Amino acid sequence: MISNASDRRMFGKNALHCLGHLLRVCPAHSQLTPQERECLARCAANRSFAVEIGVYHGASTALIRQHLDPGGRIVGIDPHPAGRLGFSLERNVALREIARHPGAQFDLWRMTSNEAAARWDEAIDLLFIDGDHSWLGIEDDWTNWSRLVVPGGSAVLHDTQPKPGSAELDSVRFYREVIAHDSRFEFQESVETLTVLCRL
Ligand SMILES: C[S@@+](CC[C@H](N)C(=O)[O-])C[C@H]1O[C@@H](n2cnc3c(N)ncnc32)[C@H](O)[C@@H]1O
After folding, report:
1. What is the mean pLDDT of residues 59-86?
2. pLDDT, tens digit, for every residue of 8-20?
3. Does residue 15 belong to any structural domain of this protein?
4. For site-directed labelling of 54, which of 70, 80, 90, 126 has its Cα 20 to 30 A away?
5. Strand, helix or coil for residue 124
6. Which residues of 138-160 are buried (b: 16+ CB within 10 A; e: fewer)?
7. Which residues, in sequence order, are CB contacts of 75 under 8 Å at separation 6+?
8. Is 113 near ligand 1, meaning CB less than 6 Å away?
């Protein structure tokens, strides 16, 4: 009962936000800080083919889209599960948010990153991982997608550096224990919880 009431409150809040976004009075939500956004925009500059895992409201997809080569393409992957009305408010916001920021071509693949990986074999020059932050989730993403990054291309990973005062996420531990030792990639920089690697 309590959880139904709190579900209803959450749904009402999300629906209101979606309406606010439609009316341009609410921004798309994102956990990226301004410094992380600035870093991601730099990583997207002069790149032509990006994959983003974890779209949510499309704020980072729109940012990448704006900074890629105008002739480039970004594919955002997110299952965007349907809510109680049978559709995803988050996907609705994301499609509008990305459309509001002209730039490279974009596609949103409504599926998990594992499902997308099973039908993907194209090389990419920017990989942004910000989906399932569990150990298994990021392990799958790293295994399936890092191999597709071309030499000189970038892999950018959100929530992979510790955040002072917050509990350590699996994604931070997986980065430190596994990705940081991956000899195919070289560390370039970290900005807050964002890590940037270059494919050798
Ligand atoms: C932190 S949000 C992404 C935020 C977005 N990158 C931004 O900065 O605005 C995480 C998103 O990952 C999605 N997600 C969770 N598991 C996923 C998976 N296995 N494959 C793709 N997306 C996933 C969730 O649906 C959610 O929308």
Report:
1. 95
2. 888 888 899 999 9
3. no
4. 70
5. strand
6. bbbbbebbbebbeeebbbbbbbb
7. 50, 51, 52, 106, 107, 108, 109, 116
8. yes
User: What is the number of domains present in the chain?
Assistant: 1
| Mean predicted confidence (pLDDT) in 158-163 | 98
pTM higher than 0.90 for the full model? yes
Tell me what pLDDT residue 3 has.
61
Regarding the beta carbon of 140 and ligand 1, being less than 6 Å apart is answered no
Q: Is the CB–ligand 1 distance for residue 129 below 6 Å? A: no
30 lines ligand 1 (CB under 6 A): yes
- Identify the domain containing residue 73 by its residue range: 31-199
Q: Is 97 in the pocket of ligand 1 (CB under 6 A)?
A: no
- Inform me whether the pLDDT recorded for 190 exceeds 80: yes
Residue 1 has what pLDDT?
39
Has residue 167 been placed in a domain? Answer: yes
What is the pLDDT averaged over residues 25-40? 96
CA distances from 82 to 11, 33, 116 (A): 12, 27, 18
Query: Does residue 21 sit within a domain?
Result: no
Tell me, in angstroms, the distance from the centre of ligand 1 to residue 141's CA.
12
pLDDT of residue 145 exceeding 70: yes
Q: Residue 130: CB within 6 Å of ligand 1? A: yes
- With respect to residue 13, please indicate whether it lies within any of the assigned structural domains: no
Tell how far the Cα of 118 is from the centroid of ligand 1, in angstroms.
18
